[in-house]
Specification:
Elements (H helix, E strand, L loop, with lengths): L5 E7 L6 H10 L24 H14 L10 H10 L11 H15 L4 E5 L7 H10 L3 E9 L2 H11 L5 H19 L8 E3 L5 H11 L6 H7 L15 H9 L9 H60 L4 H21 L1
Parallel strand pairs: 1-2, 1-3, 3-4
């Protein structure tokens, strides 16, 4: 690695907060995503994740070791309760396995060697931050450039519910609050307040331009327009009565913007109906699959009930042959040979 100082941009965010689009834009204006393969497209993200595979896999291993889950929102109540109670905090003095630290150092060195300005994103990084702090300390001549990417908690929760078959809206909001708390704590570790990018707001474009100028990227409206996709925003914002909303407003710079309470209430009610309709549709599908599977099992049981007697008959025949079918076949062949011999001598 060269002795000149390299900059590593770390995109800190929650799942479904526009991180894939943001990473693709930053890549377009000069942030290297490294020499690694990227996580491919998926139904919930058809344009790709722009997420390095080694960082994604390593973050999952770290979270599994540190917290006990590796997804976006825990589905079991015990794990979720434990994370909410601790607000996602795990002490930095825990003895992190050496093989995890070695792997983290390896992938970071490979990334920062790919350009003077490189970066990565994975929403799990926020909860795995104590691990990454230790990894970054191992790499010399490295400037860590954090970016806080935020989105309305209601939008994130609705997006998570739309993508998952068994996601609770309120559980999703709880996890958004945990991520925002960790993001604020991480930002306080740096002498200067990290840039904040407010996804799905009128400020998104200007926030990105300010970020690019601050971190030495080559901003170009034309280049960004080639990859910017307004269709990536599938939800509409609303203010929700939840601690995550306050944390979001604080990260965005203080008081929330003025809004119409009546229109906000109508938006929340409309989204609640939409989420409920989706939940009942999935429930109907599950019930239909259950009855179809049950009918298949019943047909299989009837088939097996017919096979049983046939196996019993086959077993009885095998016993009567005193040695099985091969011996019976040899006996028949011998009888046939004797008959042929007798016939030829007569």
């Amino acid at each position: 690695m060269e002795t000149s100082k390299r900059r590593l941009i770390v995109l800190l965010c929650m799942h479904r907060s526009g991180s894939s689009l943001t990473a693709s834009i930053l890549g377009e204006v000069g942030m290297s995503l490294g020499p690694y393969d990227l996580v491919g497209a998926a139904p919930g993200n058809p344009h790709g994740h722009f997420e390095s595979v080694p960082f994604n896999l390593l973050n999952k291993r770290v979270l599994d070791w540190a917290i006990g889950f590796r997804g976006d929102v825990p589905h079991d109540f015990a794990t979720l309760s434990r994370i909410l109670e601790s607000e996602g905090v795990w002490t930095a003095d825990r003895a992190i396995p050496a093989e995890l630290l070695d792997e983290g150092e390896r992938v970071v060195r490979g990334l920062v060697e790919s350009g003077l300005n490189s970066g990565f994103k994975d929403p799990r990084t926020v909860l795995a931050w104590p691990f990454w702090r230790r990894v970054f300390e191992r790499v010399e001549n490295l400037e860590i450039a954090p970016v806080l990417l935020v989105r309305s908690p209601h939008e994130i929760a609705m997006s998570l519910c739309a993508r998952s078959e068994d996601m609770s809206y309120w559980n999703a909001l709880d996890m958004v609050g945990v991520h925002l708390s960790r993001m604020r704590a991480i930002s306080e570790e740096f002498p200067e307040r990290p840039p904040v990018v407010r996804f799905a707001t009128p400020s998104y474009w200007s926030d990105l331009r300010e970020l690019a100028n601050r971190y030495g990227l080559n901003w170009s409206d034309e280049a960004v327009e080639r990859v910017y996709r307004p269709s990536s925003v599938h939800q509409l914002p609303a203010v929700v009565a939840h601690p995550a909303q306050k944390r979001y407003d604080e990260l965005c710079g203080g008081e929330p913007p003025a809004f119409d309470p009546e229109a906000n209430a109508l938006r929340l009610a409309e989204d609640a109906r939409r989420a409920e309709a989706g939940m009942y549709a999935r429930l109907r599908d599950s019930r239909r699959e259950y009855w179809e599977t049950r009918a298949k099992l019943q047909r299989l049981e009837r088939a097996l009930s017919l096979v049983g007697p046939l196996l019993a008959v086959a077993s009885s025949v095998k016993k009567r042959t005193s040695g099985g079918w091969p011996k019976l076949w040899r006996r028949r062949r011998e009888n046939g040979t004797r008959s042929a011999s007798t016939g030829s001598t007569g």
